[in-house]
Amino acid sequence: MNSRAQLQPFLNNSLAIRQEIQRFESVHPSIYAIYDLIDLIPDGLVAQQIRDHVVCIEGSLYLPVYQEVEHNSTLDVET
Fold first, then answer.
1. CB-based contacts of 19: which residues, under 8 Å, 6+ apart?
2. Could you name the domain of life of the organism this protein comes from (predicted)?
3. CA–CA separation, 62 vs 27, rounded Å?
4. What is residue 12's DSSP assignment?
């Protein structure tokens, strides 16, 4: 196996990570804007319920990409 072929899995993961960072940076300001708006809600219980939902949304946005990178890393080790 040549050195380029050995490096390819790492390059693929690096690209996936860079793309995820760019995606995160593109939505990051909007997420923080939501938290700023939540802080203005006078009803603490409602504010916390909304905050909990935003946290779930954040997790669903980021988890699939991390799982894919982890999956690709596992495949790279096995080959």
1. 65
2. Eukaryota
3. 11
4. H
Domain assignment of residue 35, given as a range: 3-78
Q: In angstroms, what CA-CA distances link 38 with 3, 42, 46, 52, 66?
A: 51, 9, 9, 11, 27
Q: Which two tokens stand for residue 40?
A: 């203005």
Token reading at 39: 């802080």
Query: What pLDDT does residue 63 have?
Result: 67
Q: What's residue 38's pLDDT? A: 98
Count of structural domains within the chain: 1
Instruction: Return the structure tokens found at 26.
Output: 């593109």
Question: Could you read off the pLDDT of 6-61 as tens digits, one per residue?
Answer: 666 666 777 877 887 788 778 888 889 999 999 999 999 999 999 999 999 888 77
* Strands (DSSP E) found in the chain: none
